[in-house]
Write a structure and sequence with these properties.
Distance between the termini: 61 Å
Helix content: 10-25%
Strand content: 25-35%
Mean pLDDT: 89
Order of helices and strands: HEEEEEHHEEE
Number of helices: 3
Low-confidence stretches: 163-171
Radius of gyration: 17 Å
Length: 227
Amino acid sequence: MPIPRNFFARHAVEVAPDLLGCVLEHQTADGLVAVELTEVEAYAGRSDPASHAYRGKTKRNAVMFGPPGHAYVYFTYGMHFCVNLVCLGEEGSASAVLLRAGAVIAGEDLARARRTRGAASVASRDLARGPARLCQALDIDRSLDGADVCAADSPLRVRAGAGNPARSATVLSLGDDPPGTPRKIMTGPRVGVSSAAEVPWRFWFEGEPTVSLYRAHVPRKRKLVTP
DNA sequence: ATGAAGATTGCCT
DNA sequence: GGCAATCTTCATG
């Protein structure tokens, strides 16, 4: 059963930590791949300089301005997709949660086939470790932009973890803790954003091996300018 | 019309 | 740790 839509009808900063431990799954003709979310980031709308919605509604980010519980998928760096889940703190808030990483709990072979190109091998923990990798493992692209993740018949959907609705992580257990032990949620600055870098809106499970490495934003070298 | 930067990743030294 | 790959979007002229 998918998560009810009102789960997403809150500020992204509230929704984000609650998404940890929830399951994102994508059903395609090739099969099902599911991940338990282990790392996310919250983005507000007009008030957040780091948000794609900061400068208003465009063709690309239109879904962010729509109803909550839908996927906002964007293309970046000429080769990567990233997926967000739209939230709604207030009408037209255009906020969302970026799904940065997860642990594959179903369809691992299919996920690996998608992530493996050429002779490369991919460790299980790296299958969906990073926002673009997560999309590649689940075969998420712009055709899923606007997909309703709260609909049971949607190919892309989100459901609660194996235990409680939020913050459960019963499938994954860490270290010596018995399965079902609630895991600690950590917060910190968002990865790779150039503005509002000090806002601690990144959330992840402490010690979880699928969480991506933190990288501060580094402006890319500009094209050569004449002196 | 044109250019610059980007919510990244993988390969190279 | 550094940098190329690759193309869409937005700002500027």
